[in-house]
Amino acid sequence: MVVFLLSSAAAAGGSATAQPSPNAAQAIAAAVNKELAAFGGPQPVPGAVIGVWLPGGVAFARGFGYGNLAGRRPMALDDHFRIGSNTKTFVATVLLQLVDEKKLSLDDTVGQFHLGLAVPNENRITLRQLAEMRSGIIDAYSIPAVQKQSESWWSRQTPRQWVSIAAKKPPLFAPGAKYNYSNTNWFLLGLIIEKATHNTIESEIQNRILAPMALKQTSFPTTDWGMPAPYAHGYSLNEKKQWIDESTALAPSVSWAAGAMISDMADMKRWVKAYVTGTTNGAASQRARLTCLSTGEGNLSFGLGIGCSAGWYGYTGGITGYNTGAYYMPATGATIIVLVNSQVEKPFPGVANAIFRDIAKVVTPENVPFVK
């Protein structure tokens, strides 16, 4: 059930894009401000861009807080954000298109692609298990020795080096045994796609998705550490609980196929609906994408590079300075986009998902995601 009352003028057909009722709009705004404060330090998380679209043309789009603390520039709806792991949804779509084209199979193993990286269990781990986060390969970022390294060290690592770092560690479990979020899986998928296509992953995404869909505000940087204008500056708290600008703290190679892309709210709105509804690939591969298995954490399941919770489908991305969520509900046609300019992922479910969850409580109270 969708509970999102129209204003009287909108209900009478006075607007092509109806506004939410004052009570609903106030509830959404209150939820956003509450979570920005809860996940902040002495001051709230600097800012967010929020978009909510429901059947009947009901729309709520608003910037909260600041896109740049220097000069106190308010957040703008067309600000660009690093979308972090939302990058994986583009990589997964290229993978499924290659499956449609019979250039590879989800049941192919990592070992079949002869990457020369000595991945544990590489002759047993399938591409499906990589995309499902069920490979058993450790997340290279989570290794304690890696966590202690400097940002400059992180920025010197290549995608193959990230896999090599993880490959030196024993597997966490047998392939397919359970769920464990690992960015290493997506470095491997990026390398495998490049091996299968003889092309770069960023070119495949550009040619197969961004150009055909005219997602002109979405990009996959490879060497440029900068951000396209206009953009929301990304912030982290330092030891003194002060917000510091880390918009350009890391090289794109740090996250690559696991999280290097940049986008804005308008593009993410179009993109999440497209890949959740399967307009980007064939019916059989879409069924595979949406075969969601429990993560063991609350009401959250996971498919092939897609999160599934309470009827909502999409993804959350976290990267230094940014936390983003883009979700679509096929049963109602509802979309929620949450773009936040700080990566605050603890406590569960993180700032972007907490905002998404709280908005869902307002607009789809019978379908509340990220509930433990």
Describe the structure.
By secondary structure, this protein is an alpha+beta fold. It has a domain at 82-222 and 243-262 and 284-293: 3-Layer(aba) Sandwich (Beta-lactamase). It has 13 helices and 13 strands. It has helices at 8-11, 22-38, 87-100, 127-132, 144-147, 151-156, 159-167, 184-197, 201-213, 256-259, 265-277, 283-289, 351-363, and strands at 47-54, 58-68, 73-74, 81-82, 235-237, 243-245, 262-263, 293-297, 300-302, 307-309, 312-319, 322-329, 334-340. A nine-stranded antiparallel beta sheet has the order 3-2-1-13-12-11-10-9-8, sandwiched between helices. A two-stranded antiparallel ribbon has the order 4-7. A hairpin with a 2-residue loop joins strand 10 and strand 11. The chain is globular and about 55 Å long.
What order do the helices and strands follow? HHEEEEHHHHHHHEEHEHHEEEEEEH
The CATH architecture name of the domain at 82-222 and 243-262 and 284-293 reads 3-Layer(aba) Sandwich
Radius of gyration: 20 Å
Q: Tell me the overall shape.
A: globular
Q: Tell me the total number of β-strands.
A: 13
Mean pLDDT: 94
Instruction: Please list the strands of the largest sheet in the order they lie side by side.
Output: 3-2-1-13-12-11-10-9-8
CATH top level class name of the domain at 82-222 and 243-262 and 284-293? Alpha Beta
Subunit arrangement of the protein: single chain
